[in-house]
Each structure stands twice: as structure tokens, then as C-alpha cells.
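Lecture notes, unit on protein representations.

Consider one protein chain, 314 amino acids long.
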Amino acid sequence: MPLVALPDELRAVVRAYLTDRPEAPWQSFARDVGIAGLLVPEEHGGAGCGPAEMAAVAEELGRALSPHPFLQSAVMAVEAARASGAGWLLEALAEGAVTATVALPGDGDLRLDGKLLTGVVPYALAGEMVLVYAGGLLVEAVPTRRVPHRTVDESRPLQELTFQDVPVRQLGDDSSWARVRDLGIAALAAEQVGGAQRCLEMAVEHAGRRHQFGRPIGSFQAIKHKLADLLLLVESARSAAGAATGDEVFAAIAGSYCTEAYLAAAGENIQVHGGIGITWEHPAHRYLKRATSDAQLFCPPQAHRARLAGHVFG
């Protein structure tokens, strides 16, 4: 499995791969770059990397609006499997042989009666295997029915999962679910930074090319201020995402700030582009759609701040 030690080198490898092979399936990505096993310990066939490498990869995936299941499978499912000691699952995830998604407490109305799982998860990230926190346990279960949603952001597939007296395979207890959630929020924040950075780059490129009154629009003070504010927003978001390593407080900060920064960057990118920015021919609208869907993925910014308030104010 290819290993790259430094986050900046890893970032360059992932960006080059996504540029050269944007349609490559997850299994090829896992085989060629080793991305599926990034956080998997080396004894289980992974790279044994940490939060810095995770953030570098997630940022590049967000920049490219990649549909790869890195967030749910290589981050959340890997952390859940690692915490439960499911070595067989870690090995399968590291190889890219299977993808997985995780249903956290509160994601749906689920009931574990003995070894049978019943209930519905209305919105779940796509994954072949389903890991569920229910009844004080972490279990693996095969849904009775999967219904794909038609979403605003088609690059992030969502499903409705139904379980009707489904036998489960116990993996461990539910003590790891908060860590899995916060690590997922941290990875999502890094993705949002990547998307916001690309929005800034597109806006700057357009401001240099587009001319009005014989001058590039980037020379006008209003556009200069808009781009300067965006740069400050993106760099602040990058700092917030970099500090969110799965800790509940810093994850809540990143979840709130990076979500709103991405929404602002995507919106301002369209404003700088003007009419072309809202056409199907230009990719600007795709970043706004991803930013909008990301804002609801774990919970909206207001909910992150409410969770943070309990730590700040006691």
C-alpha cells in the first residue's frame, strides 16, 4: 500500500490523482493511493496516519467535490471499527474491498430487541456495510430496504435505511460514538475548507479575466474588498478545521465556523461571477449545493454552537 509521510506531499498526490482520474472508483483509489486505509493501524494493513493527514486528504476531496465515501467509510467507520477492536473489518476497509456507513444515536428511530434491529434511518451516507449505534451497542446490520434520495447535491449520495427485525452482528459497546461523530465533523470541516478555497480561487481568477470599462473587475475596490474578506474567512476556517482533531469542543467550533465560511464563499463566488455563475455550464453552483447540503449533514451551525455553549457557559 502506498504511503506518503507528510500531509503536504499527501495533498499533492491526492490532487494529482483526482485531476488525472476524476472518475476512478473507490477501489482503484484505495489501491493506487492507499486512501481507504489512511487511519487504519499498520497491523491491519493501513497507513497508520493521524488527523493532519486526514485533514489534508479531506480538503482535497472537498476541493474537487469528490463523491468518494472517504468521510463515512475511511474516517467514521474506521474509527468505529478501531474502537471496537474489529480487526477483520479494518482490514476490509483498508483494502477498499467494502465501504461502510455509520448511523449515530439520534440519526433515526431504532430499537434493538435482543439481537434484532427495527427502525428507520431517514438520512444516511451511502455505504455497503451499515454500522449502527443502538441499544448501548455498536452492531453491523443489513437493511431490509435502501431508498436513495434525490438530493440537491448529487455528489454526496444519501439513503433511507429501513430495518425490520434484522439480525445484527455485535461489534462492541457504544462508548465510541461521540468520538466517531466528532472525527466525522472534523473531516467534514476540512472538506468545507477545500471547497471554500476553490471558490476563492475561482473568484480571483474570474476577477482577473473579466473586464469592464476597460479594466479587470478585480481592480475595482468593491471586488478587492470582497475577495480580501473571503481570504480572511477561508484562512480562519482552515485554522478552525486544523484544530478539530475529534475533540468535542474544537469539533463544534469547526462545525459552526467552517459551515458558514463555505456557504459565504460559495455565495460570493457566484456574486463575483455574475450571470455566468448561476448557469449549468459553470461549476460555481455545484459548490453552493455542496455547501448547502454540508450545512445539514451532522447538524446546522446553530446546533454546533448550542453544544459548544454547554462547555463555555457550564
